[in-house]
């Protein structure tokens, strides 16, 4: 897969199958679109191309929103590659690009560099200044140029339309297990292990404090979670606390994970992958460390009881 971040370096392509969008989360709806392009391109032995934007356009157009990302650009690229995309153009979305009209975008970038035989987009995709580039706009535009257009219908799961905004809402509310159904994978992110206070070890549950690699990463609601962690290509189950550690009157938000059966070794400053499988409970303040420790033991037992169920699901997804 060839990835371009500069139009000056991209080589001109022709007769490709093209899609475009932000694809935040690469959820079930996005996956159906990717598969549709892959299936059609394979039949005609043509290239697959994709145009995406970074950062998320809403973080430029509506800065006050402070929209958090469901996944990093690096994670998106990995998924694009699994669907066989040959070319990916990453457009730096800024105020200047936000003022490019839909017609100029199609003429100067899409047709000039990709010359697609077919464009496939989702039902709700918009592009160009003031979001004027709708599916109807594209349909009218295609009549004057030599490409076909396919607009996919929304994908539904349990009578709800799959969307990045719905998934973001679920994760914000801690409903990570339900979010995984819409994502077709467990929600998680790459993180860096950082030094902590060492309280976990003193309680008999050594923890790894971590921070997301993606600075704008969406973090699930505070609480205790059953998690999976990938460390040095090995997978470990464990539990994670997100919050302020009220038992110790903490004032700083902390993310810390305790992995089961993890060999004791230094992983500080190492990159790990955290996946949130299920939410166990809210974070709460205990009267003393003994009461906290007893509750952590109960949390661990709950996680161990869940391991067999989630191991099957995890293996199916991966």
Notes on the structure:
This protein has 318 residues and is of the alpha/beta class. The chain has two domains: 2-160, Rossmann fold; 163-317, Elongation Factor Tu (Ef-tu), domain 3 (Beta Barrel), CATH 2.40.30. 33% of the residues lie in helices and 26% in strands. It contains ten helices and 14 strands. The strands form three sheets. The chain has a six-stranded parallel sheet with strand order 1-4-3-2-5-6, with helices on both faces. A hairpin with a 2-residue loop joins strand 11 and strand 12. Helix 7 runs antiparallel to helix 8. It is elongated. The mean pLDDT is 90.
Short characterization:
With 318 residues, the chain is an alpha/beta fold. It has helices at residues 28-44, 58-61, 73-82, 95-98, 102-114, 135-142, 164-172, 176-183, 199-202, 289-317, and strands at residues 2-4, 17-20, 48-54, 87-92, 118-122, 148-152, 156-157, 160-161, 187-194, 208-212, 223-231, 234-243, 254-259, 271-281.
Number of domains: 2
Range of helix content? 25-40%
Q: CATH superfamily membership of the largest domain, which one?
A: HUPs
The whole-angstrom Rg is 22 Å
* Average of the residue pLDDT scores: 90
Q: How many strands appear in the DSSP assignment? A: 14
């Amino acid at each position: 897969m060839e990835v371009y971040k500069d139009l000056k370096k991209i080589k001109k392509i022709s007769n490709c199958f093209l899609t475009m969008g932000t694809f935040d989360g690469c959820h079930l709806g996005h996956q159906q679109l990717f598969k549709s392009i892959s299936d059609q391109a394979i039949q005609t032995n043509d290239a697959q191309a994709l145009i995406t934007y970074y950062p998320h356009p809403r973080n430029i157009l509506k800065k006050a929103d402070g929209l958090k990302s469901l996944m990093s650009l690096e994670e998106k690229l990995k998924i694009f590659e699994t669907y066989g995309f040959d070319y990916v153009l990453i457009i730096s979305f800024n105020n200047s690009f936000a003022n490019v009209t839909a017609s100029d975008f199609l003429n100067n970038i899409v047709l000039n560099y990709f010359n697609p035989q077919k464009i496939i987009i989702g039902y709700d995709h918009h592009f160009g200044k003031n979001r004027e580039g709708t599916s109807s706009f594209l349909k009218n535009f295609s009549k004057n140029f030599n490409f076909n257009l396919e607009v996919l219908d929304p994908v539904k799961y349990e009578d709800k339309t799959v969307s990045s905004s719905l998934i973001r809402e679920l994760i914000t509310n801690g409903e990570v297990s339900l979010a995984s159904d819409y994502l077709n994978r467990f929600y998680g992110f790459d993180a860096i292990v950082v030094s902590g206070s060492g309280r976990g070890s003193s309680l008999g549950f050594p923890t790894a404090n971590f921070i997301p690699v993606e600075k704008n990463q969406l973090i699930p609601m505070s609480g205790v979670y059953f998690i999976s962690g990938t460390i040095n290509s090995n997978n470990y189950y464990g539990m994670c606390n997100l919050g302020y550690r009220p038992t110790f009157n903490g004032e700083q938000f902390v993310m810390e994970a305790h992995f089961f059966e993890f060999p004791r070794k230094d992983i500080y400053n190492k990159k790990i992958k955290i996946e949130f499988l299920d939410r166990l409970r809210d974070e709460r303040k205990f009267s003393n460390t003994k009461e906290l420790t007893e509750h952590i033991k109960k949390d661990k037992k709950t996680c161990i009881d869940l391991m067999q169920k989630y191991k099957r699901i995890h293996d199916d997804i991966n």
